Amino acid sequence: MNTVRKSLSVLLFGLLLGIGSSAALADASLLNVSYDVARDVYKDFNPLFQKYWQAKTGEAVEIKQSHAGSTKQVRAVADGLEADVVTMNQVNDIEFLVDKGLVAKDWGAKFANHASPYTSTMVFIVRQGNPKNLKDWADLAAPGVQIIIPHPKNTGNGRNTYLSAWAWALRQPGGNDQTAQEFVGKLLKNAPLFATGGRDATTTFMQRRMGDVLITFESEAEMIAKEFGKGEFSVVYPSLTMQTEFPVALVDKVVDKKGTRKEATAYLEYLWSKEGQENAAQNYLRPRDPELLKKYAASFPAVKTFTVDEVFGGATKAFATHFKDGGTFDQVYVAK
To answer: Where are the domains of the chain?
Structure first.
């Protein structure tokens, strides 16, 4: 018995020593809570920042990532997940944390470009050869077509798809809110299910082989190509699509509690550096840096886009109208 106790004591001491040694390797630790399909972006970005920060300050920074549907993520932060920074794909998700007293009201003024370091667009991913000849939003609402999207109530990806389809319908001859609502209703009827997030939607389309078209961020196409091969699908740019932004913010309450404001601020600022913008472009996100956007022009075809401000009066207003309980999404989906 004494031998067993002694062995357990040695094991416990070793575990504690290991934890202590691991913690000692980093001078600071940051948690980046992000949306579902940003895994690769930050997996590549984090080592760049760590190298830069250690060279500049001599300080080693541990960086952890958390990814899921954007609304699910900000709710987790509101419920106590101690994110130092949030890097999202919808302004209203950041505003949700403002309302909870976790993020400063002027968060959008703390970084350039209203705190969005890069942009993207919504595109169609179709089976190789585009067997159903899907070219624009009207084709996706036709009978017999199955669309794969994440849930518009819970994900930025799903909301951007919904708003893109609405804006397209609104801008057709004779288009108005009534015709747009009717069109989006038809579109949603072609969704056999709603995925939990962007990456889940990709898995559903590519691995489970469900659906005729996946609607997702332009940047997701390259991830699909890396994993499944370019011969498995084609990318279709619709006649009008949303310019999507990716707002970032400090979680003020957390960084002040942990004493990581300096590191967290530098982490987000570095997204606008040459290295950060190059990383965005290499992950098929459209950089804000005009020189790099020109350098990678072949990766970013010209496409007609709109902003949420231009069509919907801003992300906050769009969310209130379409995605809050009782909004147009609920009305359309009940009709489904």
So the answer is: 2-117+246-298, 120-243+304-335
